[in-house]
Design brief:
Radius of gyration: 22 Å
Bound molecules: 6-O-phosphono-beta-D-fructofuranose
Order of helices and strands: EHEHEHEHEHEHEHEHEHEEHH
Shape: elongated
Helix content: 40-55%
Distance between the termini: 61 Å
Structural class: alpha/beta
Largest sheet: 7 strands, mixed
Length: 326
């Protein structure tokens, strides 16, 4: 048995469906490896404030299918300071917690990296964000479910759009990344997609809309990522309405419904795999790494690397939207 006896787990940043499945996996894998598991509530802020409870196997029963996170989540300003992190390290020492599993995104791992560096606490990260914007993993926990939710919503919007010959601009989440938007656009057969990674070419957009949409006898869907540089769905819809006053335009912002709901089988299985792998990595004396999945294999990615690099959208998928809306 290694020197790690107590493992803490927390969720941080925006919640994502599948986080509960990951918590369950971490707790049970810790117990399986002869360790005690501790749930830290309210993310890093809860860590600073000592909101910690021992979790036994039955405490994580019946949560694999639930969205949200039983540990709650928060964004902590205090943890961004060295003083805040020192408080967190003292709390961990008080509870004799030797290692941490952090389930979250980019910002969560930046904080984790600092805690490892400053206080030598082994930390392993599990990518949990619907945005899928983490370098070093093909998929983050919650992304698949969020895309499925967006697709289901857009399919319904398409019914009413078609009944009224309307052009819809549907805004999906993605403050800095267009992964949800791109996949949703392909899967719903959208006319166009606008993402933060690509500057919106209005002439191009008008061309695609004019080609496909006729207010007298057809409908159309444009998927807009919330972080699109042209200002989001309302702003772009207004521009199109100015150019084409005859168009029957509506906007629908899907919002936080994309963050909730029961996780898909993909997210449940991914979360279970990464949770077990996170504990294995700690047992193996790893620290300051994120676990990811690349080509169906579990991979170890240094925090440094995932924080520093940006995951790019697949250009082939981007061109698919154009080709298929010919
Ligand atoms: O979880 C990431 C994300 O969904 C972004 O796409 C979105 O901009 C943000 O969270 C919203 O965060 P909040 O819940 O704090 O408004």
């Amino acid at each position: 048995m290694g020197k790690i006896k107590r493992i803490g787990v927390l969720t941080s940043g925006g919640d994502a469906p599948g986080m509960n499945a990951a918590i369950r996996a971490v707790v049970r894998a810790a117990i399986f490896n002869g360790c005690e598991a501790y749930g830290i509530y309210d993310g890093y802020q809860g860590l600073i404030e000592g909101e910690i409870k021992r979790l036994r196997s039955h405490d994580v029963s019946n949560i694999i299918q639930r969205g949200g996170t039983i540990l709650k989540s928060a964004r902590s300003v205090e943890f961004r300071t060295p003083e805040g992190r020192t408080k967190a390290a003292c709390v961990l020492a008080d509870y004799q917690i030797d290692a941490l599993v952090v389930i979250g995104g980019d910002g969560s791992f930046t904080g984790a990296k600092c805690l490892v560096q400053e206080h030598d606490i082994p930390i392993v990260g599990i990518p949990g964000t619907i945005d899928n914007d983490l370098y070093g993993t093909d998929s983050t926990i919650g992304y698949d479910t969020a895309v499925n939710t967006a697709i289901e919503a857009v399919d319904k919007i398409k019914d009413t759009a078609s009944a009224h010959n309307r052009l819809f601009f549907v805004e999906v989440m993605g403050r800095d990344a267009g992964f949800i938007a791109l996949r949703t656009a392909i899967a719903t057969g959208a006319e166009a997609v606008l993402v933060p990674e690509v500057e919106t070419d209005l002439t191009d957009l008008y061309h695609f809309i004019e080609k496909d949409y006729n207010p007298k006898n057809s409908s159309g869907i444009v998927i807009v990522a919330e972080g699109d540089k042209s200002g989001g769905a309302y702003s772009i819809a207004e521009k199109v309405a100015q150019k084409h006053p005859d168009y029957d335009i509506r906007v629908s912002v899907l919002g936080h419904m994309q963050r909730g709901g029961s996780p898909s089988q993909f997210d449940r299985v991914l979360a279970s795999q990464l949770g077990v792998a996170a504990v294995d990595a700690l047992m193996d004396d790893q620290k300051s790494i994120m676990l990811g999945i690349m080509n169906k294999e579990i991979v170890h990615v240094p925090f440094n690397k995932t924080i520093k690099h940006t995951k790019n959208l697949n250009p082939e998928l981007l061109s698919l939207v154009r080709i298929l809306s010919v």
